[in-house]
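Sorry to interrupt, but I need a hand with the structure work. Please put the record directly below this note.
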Amino acid sequence: MRKPAPTDRPIHPLLAERWSPYAFTGEDVDEADLLALFEAARWAASSYNAQPWRFILARRREPGAFERALSCLVPFNQSWARHAPVLALGLVHGGSAAGGSPIPVAAHDLGLAAASLTVEATHRGLAVHQMSGIAADRIRGAYALPEDVLPVTALAIGYAAAPEATPEEWRERQVRPRERRRLAELVFEERWGEPAAFLAGEPED
């Protein structure tokens, strides 16, 4: 299933094609594709090149490992993510800059790595649904995390299901139109809340 963003101006097709489905087909993800996704994440930018992101991977074809990862999501996310062929938990390791001070943007860097992974997934016809709804304490106990590792997010990875193959409870979410705030609400210049001058020609609603 495709659901390209209705952008106001042209952007790279991979960015426009990216979206977060609630229903996945039963098709497994090839290991070569998985390797490419995490290779893309490996080469994301990071502060001081500390690369603080870490991922814990679970595949549905390995039921025990998959159920353990699934149990680390909040119940709502468990209800739909259980049908994804791949789950990944996103964590940050307590990396430090030169001199040993903590890196305050570690979670930001994890986001960059996840974004790179997502673009590579889109390129390969895959979809990624990122989640903040996790049970951090459950993750910490289930995987015996060190003190300096912080659970942050989770990702469901797979092939988006077509509307007719989407369970009724998720169909509305799967097909609802995509929308975003206007740039004038997001990009300021001289004062908070005042749109940047270069946005004067932005299309109106």
Q: What stands out?
A: The chain has seven helices and four strands. The beta strands are 53-59, 86-93, 127-131, 149-158. The longest helix spans residues 106-123. The radius of gyration is 19 Å.
